[in-house]
Specification:
491 residues; alpha+beta; OB fold (Dihydrolipoamide Acetyltransferase, E2P); 3 domains; five-stranded mixed beta barrel
Length: 491
Amino acid sequence: MDNKNINRIFYIGITSFFFGIFFSTIFNKLNLLPLVYLTISYLSIWLFLKSKLINIFKLNIILISLIFFIIGFYHFNIFYAQKKGDYDFLINKKIDKTFIVDDEPEIKGWHTKLILIDKKNNNKFISWVDNLPKYEYGDELEIKGWLIKIKNFKSNDSFRQFDYINFLKKDNIFYEIKKPSISLKEKHKGSYIKEKLFYFKKKITNQIKKLMPEPESSLLAGILIGAKEDMGRELLDEFRKTGIIHIVVLSGFNLTILAQFIMIVLSIFGKKISTFFGSLSIILFAIMTGASATIVRASLMALLVIMAKSMGRNSEAIKLLFLAGFIMLIFNPMLLVYDASFQLSFLATLGLLLLSPKIEGWIKYGNWKIFNFKEILGATLSTQIFVFPLLLYLMGEISIVSPLVNILVLILIPFSMLLGVITILFSLINFNIGLILSYFNYLILTYDLIIVHYFSLLSFSTFKWDNFSAADMFIVYFIYFLIFIFWKRKK
């Protein structure tokens, strides 16, 4: 069997597994859908054999597709059925239990969100508390409060209902504790490594705030370690309107783009150096942000982009991308439909690998030594094209000015990140030297903020489409697929 047929079997098998999971989320009870699929498949095989239009290889393709579809379908059902809370009998009752803070507390306005875990059964809970007193990862807390089930909700600016239940269920979070009364019992009850990572992240954030004023300090903290809490709602809204929010949210979408830009900017030093620093930056991001499951998944996909660029073989990296997605969904099939970070990571990476080389080929000018405009534009447009249908469905709006703002801002982000790391390291040795170096980064960050603010004021900066449904999104991606098939055949 030649490589072309092996690749065909590989992609059909994994794609069928993805479809099996997807259909299982729609029909999330064990039912007759796989049986119907089985019947139709075998009927198709019989008809093809009758008409002598099929050979043994095509027959095997159909059977492989069928097998992987059924595996994906039932894998999701079994996984979903096992995700159950153990405290349903206490719903709407007052509880008095001991929990451990299982993640870094997230400050939002006047309140802090705590993720709590019951170590006896690993059930997780959400609780909103006042910002003071401050709690940290690993704190053991005795909490008295009312237990309620997680509920879905509609955001203020969208008619869509967000499936908050399944979004949290994938992470074993089933309940919320309302009106909590909290007393601290003991500290340092979590993972020692994770605790030190969060401590390190906090220390970096505090050092940045000492070196430069707001909002530049919060922007640098967001770029380096994803600490965007102090940026304020108004500034974050400006970043969303201009489609640049990903630089302060360490999602896969963000890391994929940053990985590409770091390599482009450092390409003047040669492929080996740019590959090394690109990979190192992604690994450092994952470590500094606590190496959560979401960040590890995002980092893995970003590293695939670096691998593809270093090898010069995007086809192999695409294979690895599908394989990585397959492995992630084996461990948690709920990511496919209920985790926007996974979806954006996968699509942004796929866009970079598939479309970026084509766009670069269409651009005749801009192959400069320091700022390679062709690669920057190719990376920006390819990711934007691949994620825009999903973003439009999720948010009900997309940024019209996003491609231009991304180019104007992202071209300096790698320099800002590198200078930020150097500044922090020198400031820990001698604060005055760090302060002098921070001034240069302050100028870059101020430039970024001015660009974002100016473009966010434009009346046409965003395009809203509240009625853009899931069906509309799938139609757009199906058109993408048809264009890809047409291009492959023409090639």
